[in-house]
Amino acid sequence: MTRSTEERLRETLDALAAGIEAAPPAYKKARAEWRRRERRRRLVLAVLIAIVFALADLIGLWALNQTRDHDPIIFDDRSRIHQTDPATGVIPP
Amino acid sequence: MTSPLIRAQQAAAEPDEALATLFQTQYAGMLRLAVLLGADDAEDIVAEAFYQLYRRWKKLRGADAAVPYLRSVVCNLTRMRLRHLQVVRKHSTPETAQPPGISAEAEALLHDDQRALVAALKELPARQREALVLRHWLGLREAEIAEAMGISAGAVKSHTSRGMAALTRVLEERR
Q1: Which of A70, B76, B116, B171 has its CA 20 to 30 A from that of B110?
Q2: Does any CB of chain A come closer than 8 Å to the CB of residue B133?
Q3: For chain A, how many structural domains are there in total?
Q4: Which parts of the chain span the membrane according to its record (chain A) (predicted)?
Q5: B40 and B86 in contact (C-beta within 8 Å)?
Q6: How far is A53 from chain B (nearest CA, A)?
Q7: ipTM of the complex
């Protein structure tokens, strides 16, 4: 029974496929469309990257601007600057 | 001796020629595949598949990998389209909802039994339908079907046997 269904399915699919009109469009036209889409995709990608960079810059600048003057953000060496060197007898080079 | 400029032009022309040949030889087959899988906009799907091939041409393993890649893209896009249509149908009124797929003109040439088989095929889940079409229309091996569908060979066997059992049941009920 399954064998018979397989054969009938094959015949049906062949008959259906034969009834489908499928002439390929002009290749040059299709290729021009692919190139246009590819250019557009790259342009959109470049704009998105530029926007992300600009946003990151702006956020960084805003964060820097929020801090008080003379307030070290990353390294705080004030304690070491004002600290006296221990008298170990070792002379720094 | 060829100059570097001529060699560069030849290298650029070779993929273009290969793509042009593929487009001429495979377009009809891919369009028929998309229709048999149930796509209502087969031409758009095939155009998108060729664009994806154009984009990834340099990343392909070789020219031999182009046809399996195209087949795989057509299967994926058709499945996505069918899922989208299912969602649309769920939220639309019964009058506006139309089942996607094979046109009435193409079906008009079929016998009653064949029409019943097509109707049963439309009712199958997308994966089972894909497995049956790839197996019985394209005559692909299990490994090739698995590659096209992005699943394991065991899953292909399962989808094929379940789909075939459902079709057999429908044909038996008609007798």
Answers
A1: B76
A2: yes
A3: 1
A4: 43-64
A5: no
A6: 26
A7: 0.77
